[in-house]
Amino acid sequence: MNEIVSISPLDESEFGRIKVSSRDEIRLAVKKARNAFTEWSAKPIEERVSLLLELKQLIKKRSKKIARVIHFEMGKPEWSALAEVQSVIESIDFHCNNDPQYLKPVTLSRTKKEQHVQLFEPLGVIGVITPWNFPFAIPFDGVLPSLVSGSTVVLKPSEQTPFVGLEVKKIFDELEDKGLPSNVFNFVVGGKDEGKFLVKQDIDMVSFVGSRKAGIEIMRDSAPKLHRLILELGGKDPAIVCEDADIEKTAHGVVHGAMRNCGQVCCSIERVYVVREVYDEFIALAEKETRAIKFGAGKNAYIGPLIGEFQRKIVKEHLRDAIKKGARVLVGGRSPKRKGFWFEPTLVVNVNHKMKLMKEETFGPLLPVMKVKSIDEAVRLANDSIYGLTASIWTEDREKGKRIARRLFAGTVTVNRRGGVKEGCPWGGAKQSGIGRQMGLDSVRSYTEIKHLWIK
Ligand code: NAD
Hints:
It is a single chain. By secondary structure, the protein is an alpha/beta fold. The chain has two domains: 3-233 and 430-455, Aldehyde Dehydrogenase, Chain A, domain 1 (3-Layer(aba) Sandwich); 237-415, Aldehyde Dehydrogenase, Chain A, domain 2. The protein is 43% helix and 21% strand. The chain is built from 14 helices and 20 strands. It is globular and about 70 Å long. Bound molecules: nicotinamide-adenine-dinucleotide. Nicotinamide-adenine-dinucleotide binds at residues 129-133, 138, 156, 158-159, 191-192, 195-196, 199, 209-211, 214, 217-218, 232-235, 266, 361, 363, 389, 429, 434.
């Protein structure tokens, strides 16, 4: 692959072409990052933070332009793209306000004879590899803690959205005019092969967000050099609807939690278990909510198309498999006959765990709902997954919600809302949804080497 032809999922038109980085260019990017590390890591953290605050201003200035690139290249509505850009501004604020505190040396003990201190030292060069579903925001999840803690970076964004990746690069280019030393931030273009090649270089950590399959390969490729790893992977997130839930609010929350970003969110609700007492009422309202989801390219749309034909194929395959095994489609289920990778918001019932759509990550606008006899059965089925990113419980009894939450294997459990990211709180997967945590107190620390300083 010498160049990537970026196709807009809105209408399949060519969005642009971009040259793929050669192996030499990737090697050089790592080398440059390594050379820049000494100067960058020696800077006081306050200086690094003040440069990142400049970054915020640059993003603010360009936010509309960036949102338009996200809209055309990835397909999400412009309001949603703008919200994505805004989330980066919040993230910069969080890191700049909190990380200096989190990275302060901790005195573990001090006596007349000796002193023990825990230091958080910069790691070196961090390879950041990212997906296409939040193509502007996710690169910053890896880049910000790396840079604040004193490491340098090589970013490889997704081959589906290289031009959004380029927007990230442009901002760092502008930041160099404001004082960022050159080569602290480096950028390479490519797909899986280039990502694999980057992982095999002399880097110190891989900060990866993407599929479980790629996460496994990255772990394997990281083994020879024992790279530090953060892996934020996929999910098959369950929702449990209790008999005492506010069904109207629940149906709204669950359907939107499943359809947001056209279901292309790692923590989308991908399966629902409803206790039989409220099943019929839930289905009637979920049907109404699903029909009301506006999809299209216009300003009022709630969701856009899928990212590409490869993603639509998975959605169709999961649906076909389920129907073959007895599932029934209540709403949607088709691709409208028009250019672009569109798929209707879809509600499915009569499902079970023999179907792919209840076991494998779909990453599309499908909401399968299963009737269960009890909360115990719902908990057992919710945990019957290799994944454990988020899970949600819907009940008016918050204490009961908390008790059920403790029984679910997931990195985040929510009560009466869909799973999601909250700045300042840890984010990551249980089971095969990942390793390590981003955001929150532990985020920046996990981008460092912990050093024990022992002074006599
Ligand atoms: P993907 O794994 O196909 O690709 C992600 C990135 O990794 C891309 O840049 C790709 O080029 C690169 N890549 C692929 N294989 C690689 C390899 N063997 N070595 C190195 N790099 C490799 O994922 P995707 O289709 O871009 O994104 C969708 C997936 O991302 C879903 O599974 C979704 O759940 C997950 N995701 C997780 C989170 C989270 O926070 N847990 C957030 C967003 C997306």
